Amino acid sequence: MALIECQKCGNKISDTAYKCPKCGKRRWGKSKGIFIFLGILIVFAISSFFVIKTILKRVDQKRQAEIAVIEEEMSGLYKKADFDGVENCLDRIDSLKGDTTEQREALEYDRKYYADALNYYTCLKETYDKLDSGGYSSITSVIKTFKDATDRFEKIPINENSEMGRWVKDVKSSSDFVAFNAVMLDGYSETIKDDRNVNWIQASTLSFSMRPLLEYEFPYTKK
């Protein structure tokens, strides 16, 4: 232990003393260094926080951009009803830590109900063409085929996370669909018999009533 002079009164004090016992002046040398060190440490910590935050933000922006590219690709695959390709895209999004829960539910929905939804739309177009052109041998057979397709279509639930599910909702909730089913399929068509003398009038009536339904185009192409 060494003796040093107090900077204020000149009294000899220990170099380990916190303050001068005579005048009470505090010795800042040692404490000041600690405070400076702590200050530098705090500034470094704050600077590091913002640097890391900026880096993480850029990493997340890059990740989101990659996910957006995959989702754009996935949209094109959906249009082609390439459900295996869509699943592959979802696996890639998972690897980027994206949340694909709702998208996978929509994919399973599409896989399960795609055939019945497409069959309804295809049957609708074929039935309209046959009735409109007179290209049928039995009008009752044509109507029965379409009614069967409609019955299966009506059993498809709605999933608004799926583009096809939204299409199903739009068709089912349309006044065109409700009116045609109630008036034509469940009413008028029940009175029709195979009679070439009058079938052309009945076919014209049905095709005219069916035409608005063709405006609801199926969102996916046929596999």
Describe the model.
The chain is mainly α and 223 residues long. It has 2 domains: 1-99, no CATH class; 113-215. It has helices at residues 29-79, 83-95, 101-133, 139-154, 163-173, 175-185, 196-210; strands at residues 3-5, 12-14. A hairpin with a 6-residue loop joins strand 1 and strand 2. The chain is rod-shaped, with a radius of gyration of 39 Å. The mean pLDDT is 86.
Tally of DSSP β-strands:
2
Helix content: 55-70%
Mean pLDDT: 86
Element-level helix/strand string = EEHHHHHHH
Secondary structure tally, helices? 7
Distance between the termini: 92 Å
Query: Residue ranges: pLDDT <50 for 5 or more in a row?
Result: none
Any idea how many domains?
Answer: 2
Quick overview:
With 223 residues, the chain is an all-alpha fold. It contains 7 helices and 2 strands.
Question: Which helices and strands, and how do they pair?
Answer:
Elements: E1 3-5, E2 12-14, H1 29-79, H2 83-95, H3 101-133, H4 139-154, H5 163-173, H6 175-185, H7 196-210
Antiparallel strand pairs: 1-2
Helix pairs in contact: 1-2, 2-3, 3-4, 3-5, 3-7
Feature tags:
mainly alpha; rod-shaped; 67% helix; 223 residues; 2 domains; two-stranded antiparallel ribbon; 2 strands
